[in-house]
Amino acid sequence: MNQNLWAGDWEKINEIILKLNSEEDIITALNGFLLDLEELIPYEKACIYFYDLSAEDIVKTYLGQGFSDKELKDYELYYCNIDDVVEKMKPNQEVIIRSSDAFDYKERKETEYFRDYVVPAHTKVSLDSNFRWDADNKEFCIGSLDLFREERDVDFTEKEIEICKVFQPHLELKASNYAFMFENLASRYSLTSTEKDIATMVLKGYSNEEIAETKYISISTVKKHVSRILEKSDSKSRIEFICKASGNER
């Protein structure tokens, strides 16, 4: 048993792991995990990201707590490509990165990523742990659990790092199922490439207006694509489609 963790810590850790593994709905499980984790590791913001470093758009999908929709989407569309933490997330081994250990603050604060994203998002103090989400492509398909605090807050402790280490394999197992939900949309429902992209955005919670703005298409075109997606998945509504795609049909 790790000397940094007390019996009460292990009791809560085991409770979170049990809840994570027993919840059938993947989205509910991972969002619940982020909320429960805050009891052990207090944070201002948190997210789970899935990356495919071999793809042009490296962010495959994500969940977030405390972030605005704009912050998450700005990261997905641009800042992920210059994120200095991603390059340290070695796909073939487990790593945990505390920003105060990994970076020279004076050098980092001069970078575009830090100046234009980290500072406005108030995520200067971070703790990031990686996982693999595709057994067939471990070299490029990595995920990260990212926890953030305000600069004025205390840094993440050695104990909190150890807690993240305990959760890494359990998060990897569950998160791989979440990524699978997105990766197999096209084959499951015979979607075109464009329909798959829009279906993924529907699962992430994008509105028709947000999809139109992101994809540079009209709202009427978005509606036509969404109608086709619902038709192909035999769903009467977005909610039914989300339930089917996440394996949570009632």
Note down, in words, how this protein is organized:
This protein is an alpha+beta fold and 250 residues long. The protein is globular. Helices cover 51% and strands 14% of the residues. The chain has a 5-stranded antiparallel sheet, with helices on both faces. The model has no long low-confidence stretch (mean pLDDT 91).
Topology:
Elements: H1 7-22, H2 26-37, E1 45-52, E2 59-65, H3 69-77, E3 96-98, H4 99-102, H5 105-108, H6 112-121, E4 125-132, E5 141-149, H7 158-183, H8 185-189, H9 193-204, H10 208-215, H11 219-232, H12 238-245
Antiparallel strand pairs: 1-2, 1-5, 3-4, 4-5
Helix pairs in contact: 1-2, 1-7, 2-7, 9-11, 10-11
Number of helices: 12
Distance between the termini: 41 Å
**Which structural category fits the helices and strands?**
alpha+beta
Radius of gyration in whole Å, from Cα? Answer: 19 Å
